[in-house]
From TrEMBL:
Membrane topology note: Peripheral membrane protein
Name the UniProt record assigns to this protein: Rab GDP dissociation inhibitor
Top-level taxonomy: Eukaryota, Metazoa, Chordata, Craniata, Vertebrata
Organism, as annotated: Bison bison bison (North American plains bison)
Superkingdom to which the source organism belongs: Eukaryota
Subcellular compartments: Cytoplasm; Golgi apparatus, trans-Golgi network; Membrane
Length: 110
């Protein structure tokens, strides 16, 4: 849930996202418990999107395609997908240690 504190809604208003991976023929009913917690709701937008995945790994074609967004709201699986694409492209995992600032960069000392 986000609000005016995030500069995305008027004072006293909130924007909430309730999402799930559809398991039945009544997806809105699946999220009803979450929607009830958010009541009263002034406006509601419902959308259903297919979850798409690439047909191949891209290692042969050198065309690397990501998956579509899923029901996670903080992009956890999207980050995993990006790391997977990097590994398929480069042949090794991304080294996050290389990206960390060295003490020297911050404080000017070794």
């Amino acid at each position: 849930m986000i609000s005016s504190a995030h500069n995305v809604a008027a004072q006293g208003k909130y924007i909430a996202i309730a999402s799930t991976t559809v398991e039945t023929k009544e997806p809105e009913k699946e999220i009803r418990p979450a929607l009830e917690l958010l009541e009263p709701i002034e406006q509601k937008f419902v959308s259903i999107s297919d979850l798409l995945v690439p047909k191949d790994l891209g290692t042969e074609s050198q065309i690397f395609i990501s998956r579509t967004y899923d029901a996670t709201t903080h992009f956890e699986t999207t980050c995993d997908d990006i790391k997977d694409i990097y590994k398929r492209m480069m042949g090794s995992e991304f080294d996050f240690e290389e990206m960390k600032r060295k003490k020297n960069d911050i404080y000017g000392e070794e």
